[in-house]
TrEMBL record:
<dbReference type="Pfam" id="PF03018">
    <property type="entry name" value="Dirigent"/>
</dbReference>
<protein>
    <recommendedName>
        <fullName>Dirigent protein</fullName>
    </recommendedName>
</protein>
<keyword id="KW-0964">Secreted</keyword>
<comment type="subunit">
    <text>Homodimer.</text>
</comment>
<keyword id="KW-0052">Apoplast</keyword>
<dbReference type="GO" id="GO:0048046">
    <property type="term" value="C:apoplast"/>
</dbReference>
<dbReference type="InterPro" id="IPR044859">
    <property type="entry name" value="Allene_oxi_cyc_Dirigent"/>
</dbReference>
<comment type="function">
    <text>Dirigent proteins impart stereoselectivity on the phenoxy radical-coupling reaction, yielding optically active lignans from two molecules of coniferyl alcohol in the biosynthesis of lignans, flavonolignans, and alkaloids and thus plays a central role in plant secondary metabolism.</text>
</comment>
<dbReference type="GO" id="GO:0009699">
    <property type="term" value="P:phenylpropanoid biosynthetic process"/>
</dbReference>
<dbReference type="InterPro" id="IPR004265">
    <property type="entry name" value="Dirigent"/>
</dbReference>
<comment type="similarity">
    <text>Belongs to the plant dirigent protein family.</text>
</comment>
Length: 151
């Protein structure tokens, strides 16, 4: 396949245009698991909240609606898809995140694939970092969200 010089220059301009995010913020994803000690295989999340700091008891910045499922029982990697629902004085609307969460990696980039309200048709990257793990009952992710398309 041949690419003309004008196509190559156009692609370069598009990439350089989005080097700086148009919106960036950090949220902490708190997942508190409801477990029956005799039935670990069927555990479910009791509540998933998003805060602006690491404290589980901080005011909610958003709630998460969606799912993640583990790819294997021996290796902790998951496929993640959720909608963050914002209803605060700072933001209103939703933000959709999805992709492979390769949990053994220190940081993982998942795609921001859209949104509504203040995040109408947003596109970008959510970088996950595991921030805390308390056995199989609780974990916290730091989500560094960078949006490159904001309307």
């Amino acid at each position: 396949m041949l690419v003309s010089e004008s196509q190559s220059v156009s692609a370069t301009r598009k990439i350089s245009k989005y080097q700086k995010p148009c919106k960036q913020f950090v949220l902490y994803y708190h997942d508190n698991l409801l477990l029956d000690p005799d039935d670990v295989a069927n555990s479910t999340s009791a509540k998933v909240t998003m805060t602006k700091d690491q404290s589980f008891h901080s005011p909610e910045a958003a709630t998460a609606q969606g799912f993640y499922f583990y790819n294997m029982k021996t290796d902790y990697s998951a496929w993640f898809a959720c909608t963050l629902v914002f209803n605060s004085s700072e933001y209103k609307g939703t933000l959709n995140i999805m992709g492979a969460d390769l949990m053994p990696e220190k940081t993982r980039d998942l795609s921001v694939v859209g949104g509504t309200g203040d995040f109408f048709m947003a596109r970008g990257i959510a970088t996950f970092t595991t921030d805390a793990v308390e056995g199989i009952k609780y974990f916290r992710l730091k989500m560094d969200i960078k949006l490159y398309e904001c309307y």
